[in-house]
Amino acid sequence: MPILRSVTDPSDPTYQANEATQLRHLDALHGELAKALDGGGETYRKRHHDRGKLLARERISLLLDEGAPFLEFSSLVGYGSEFAVGGAIVTGLGVVSGVECVIAANDPTVRGGAINPYGLKKHLRALEIARENRLPVINLVESGGADLPTQADLFIPAGQLFRDITRLSALGIPTIAIVFGTSTAGGAYVPGMSDYAVLVDQGAKVFLGGPPLVKMATGEESDDEALGGARMHSTTSGLGDYFAANEHDGIRMGREIVASLHWQKKGPGRVQEPVAPVVDPSQLLGVISGDLKIPFDPREVIARLVDGSRFDEYKAHYGTSLVTGWAVLNGYKIGIIANARGVLFNDEAKKGAEFIMLANQTDTPLLFLHNTTGFMVGKAYEQAGMVKDGAKMVNAVANSTVPHLSVIMGASYGAGNYAMCGRAFGPRFAFSWPGAQVAVMGPEQLAGVLSIVARQSAESRGKPFDEAQDDLQRRATQVQIEREQHAFVMSGKLYDDGIIDPRHTRTALAMCLSAIHSAPIEGRRGFGVFRF
């Protein structure tokens, strides 16, 4: 494959301005991530430690293989809501006893680890990732059950948690629960429905109803240990499969369970040994435009992601607003689809659809790099068949069965988000860069459209148009969309799997590509009806 040569000059003022903008975005990101890391705050973290207990991320760190990275998912979930950033649960991908696993750990420093609507969605997404990629699941449990004041938004959808755990087991995907503390009410079913349950002595408390509820419901007097302690469940009820002396012992047992699985991947694996890019990935901050209205060449990004910076471009001189081609990343073959100048025209849509079909014919995973304002509008393009051509690419994305990875680098507007495999189209993993923006269209355009519609409505009714009110409305709408399209807001709603530092993109994608090869990789050989 040809080697991509970078034309980026770090001494150029534009590069330096871009880098400064991205560093500001990263400063803001680190500020929000600090809130998630803080959990329930210093007081509650200290209280937890004083009880001789480990924090959620400490448990994860001990569970992982020495030196193994942890790709955390959805760290900003709940951003802008009434709930703590992070959703009172930590989820992610890591290697345990040589096996890639999905890990979910309740954070008991946040309202006792109680499940809230955002934390539930985050947990369900982690289980979805495990199912799609055939990855064992380890739940590190310490939760008081449902956050009762939010039960109206929680109770019905929470049933999916139990459904998904049992379906993973039915698919032959192991589920392991290590219970460190309270596992109450619905939370009791997590160890109850897992394939393996490790209960920590003097810590685990697993019951449908605690002593106060039992007293209210039946009049019976009971203590925590007799009602749901680790020793009782390990000797009497049979719920506990492994009786751990302490938290460290429980984590050791969890690692041994994973080792005993003798887990085998079913994907084709690497086509070569990994090779670092020739072009420096740390320069990505200067490559990305500080102003998303100004496009940037995605080849500059690709050169900093793929092995040896080698890229075999497909149809390089046709539909040039969309860059497509083949590469290897961390030793795994991939196809790449990247936006070049924002707008998708007729030729780009047809080129993208064709390339997706080729990837399916060769069982090749696809990486989508978003920076698009959507499909082109206008009389000439409509008459040329923009709708049916755009539908070809959307059809191809929707029916493709090879794994998709998405990274929203800049803008991802309108149906361009769909054609580039946005969240609704089920990418195996989806990440955003801190300056990304996602909306139906840009703020100025959206506000302008509403203004035009209002003006036409007034004219049709024969009423005068209030220019001053229109100006106020346009400004308010623009501010609203600018706020709502922000990457932090989108990630807070779980419309991606997390915001990553652009310089760490190769590492994140490398972990994801390795994980998807735990499952077979098979492309679709037959597609639906395409309009010609």
Give a quick set of tags describing it.
532 residues; alpha/beta; eight-stranded mixed β-sheet; seven-stranded mixed β-sheet; globular
Task: Characterise this structure.
This protein is of the alpha/beta class and 532 residues long. Helices cover 42% and strands 18% of the residues. The chain is built from 20 helices and 17 strands. The chain has helices spanning 13-38, 42-50, 56-63, 117-133, 151-170, 189-193, 211-218, 224-228, 230-237, 247-260, 284-287, 298-302, 346-361, 379-383, 386-399, 414-419, 443-460, 467-484, 487-492, 505-516; strands spanning 70-73, 89-96, 99-106, 137-143, 175-184, 196-200, 205-207, 242-244, 312-314, 322-329, 332-339, 343-344, 366-372, 374-375, 404-413, 429-432, 437-439. Strands 1, 2, 3, 4, 5, 6, 7 and 8 form an eight-stranded mixed β-sheet that branches. Strands 9, 10, 11, 13, 15, 16 and 17 form a seven-stranded mixed β-sheet that branches. A hairpin with a 2-residue loop joins β2 (89-96) and β3 (99-106). α4 packs parallel to α5. The longest helix has 26 residues, at 13-38. It is globular.
Write a brief structural summary.
This protein has 532 residues and is of the alpha/beta class. The protein has helices at 13-38, 42-50, 56-63, 117-133, 151-170, 189-193, 211-218, 224-228, 230-237, 247-260, 284-287, 298-302, 346-361, 379-383, 386-399, 414-419, 443-460, 467-484, 487-492, 505-516; strands at residues 70-73, 89-96, 99-106, 137-143, 175-184, 196-200, 205-207, 242-244, 312-314, 322-329, 332-339, 343-344, 366-372, 374-375, 404-413, 429-432, 437-439. It is built from 20 helices and 17 strands.
